[in-house]
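Contributing new records

If you add data, match the layout below exactly. Sequence lines come first and carry their own label; structure lines follow with theirs. Keep one chain per record. Anything else will be rejected by the validation script.
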Amino acid sequence: MKTRPLGKAGTRALAGAFVLLFGGMAVAEAQQDPLLIFAVVTKVPKDKSKVTAQIVVGAGGGTVTETILIASDAVQENLIWKKLEVCHSLRAEAWKNPDGYRVVSVKVLDAGMLPMALQGIAGDCLLKKALEFAPLVD
């Protein structure tokens, strides 16, 4: 069986099929449900649109990574996000971005409700925060 070159029309058709196939996959991936993440806030900048946190993806635990939480417009208007401080424990739903995680919903948790991998980090953070304020109390 002999093969022939595709030519310009065949190459265009093949490229179009490739774009439709893989472009559709990118859209489907973007519309998946957001990931469940647990986080302990480590740095809060003045504008609070991007917050640094130690996170674990999923309820089963896993590895702790330091990343940026990027607040969506709806989350920035949320009172929880407006009052955010260092050491706050969060349960959030977010999509993974190249810059970090885009948060679409957020709830505050007690540190004991975090996955085990984050409980130690939250405890250490709260102790440091308490020791910073201890000299001020007399």
